[in-house]
Write a structure and sequence with these properties.
Elements lengths: L7 H9 L2 E8 L3 E10 L4 E5 L10 E4 L7 E4 L4 E7 L16 H8 L13 E6 L4 E6 L4 E5 L3 E6 L2 E2 L6 H11 L12 H4 L4 H4 L15 E3 L5 E13 L2 E7 L9 E3 L19
Antiparallel strand pairs: 1-2, 1-10, 2-13, 3-4, 5-6, 6-7, 7-8, 8-9, 10-11, 12-13, 13-14, 14-15
């Protein structure tokens, strides 16, 4: 079988850092599904309360810069997700890590009003059970959108329109057809998210399919770039639920993150590279 070409933007982004795919559904409560992609040599630790400055927040921590790609505020029923934007020339001169942005947004509970000129381009999604807002910083200007009721796919090329993005064209109608969690209950992640599991684990697409949201690629310099973890978040009037997976193709690997967390492997002393 001939290998399908990977979009050039995806190849450029993979050579330069984190990718992510986020599905957010608002109808009437909100559900967020996120897959994080990164080079396997970049160390990180699973979700916990890692930031004394933000004691009410949970998220996985990137040990290189100290920030996160996804932060949740259980008491406020909020989730903030960061996606890398297209690279700009001389972007390495922008000194601030984007990993603090989800923490700032989740702590503030609102779209950030600050100077972004020292940040490289990004997309920042802030979701509650009532609204979903998307900030887009292209390196020179900021755009804000409140996403309408429905199901949306956001990638490192931005808010996808199904006709313009192969992943959106494939996955958006499939996620749109799924029921949204209307209430919280103590069932296992596999039971609670039973309808979502086949899609969030990749829908049986191979890693080199351009539609795939679960990827694995060996780069020319010998590094491996792959999907490292995935998250499922339910936001309801009664509270929120956060389920996390370090083996994104394995539905049985999802576990519920609780507050306070009981994660022995979430302490900095046990930091390891991303799971194989």
């Amino acid at each position: 079988m001939r290998r399908r070409p990977i979009p050039e933007f995806t190849l450029r982004a993979r050579r330069n850092g984190t990718l992510c795919t986020v599905v957010v559904s608002l109808d009437p409560t909100a559900a967020v599904a996120a897959v994080r992609d990164e080079v396997t040599e970049r160390l990180w630790i699973p979700p916990a309360q890692h930031w004394p400055k933000y004691p009410g927040l949970l998220g996985g921590q990137d040990l290189r810069a100290g920030g996160t790609w996804l932060a949740v505020a259980p008491s406020e029923r909020l989730a903030a997700v960061l996606l890398k934007g297209p690279d700009l020339p001389h972007a390495q001169n922008r000194l601030r890590s984007r990993g603090d942005l989800p923490l700032r947004a989740a702590a503030a509970g609102e779209v950030l009003d600050m100077d972004f000129t020292r940040y490289a381009p990004f997309y920042l999604l802030l979701a509650s059970f009532q609204t979903v807002r998307l900030m887009t910083w292209d390196g020179t200007g900021l755009r804000q959108n409140e996403l309408p009721t429905g199901t949306h796919l956001i990638t490192n090329s931005g808010w996808c329109r199904a006709s313009e993005d192969v992943r959106g064209a494939f996955f958006q109608p499939l996620f749109q057809a799924l029921p949204r969690p209307a209430r919280l209950d103590p069932r296992s992640p596999q039971e609670y998210w039973s309808d979502w599991m086949p899609l969030i684990t990749g829908a049986n697409l191979p890693a080199n399919d351009p539609r795939s949201i679960i990827i694995h690629e060996e780069l020319a310099d010998g590094r491996v770039f792959k999907s490292l973890c995935s998250s499922l978040i339910a936001l309801t009037p009664d509270g929120m639920r956060y389920d996390f997976n370090t083996r994104p193709r394995d539905a049985t690997a999802f576990r519920q993150i609780t507050l306070p967390p009981d994660l022995s492997d979430a302490k900095p002393a046990s930091a390891v590279g991303p799971p194989a």
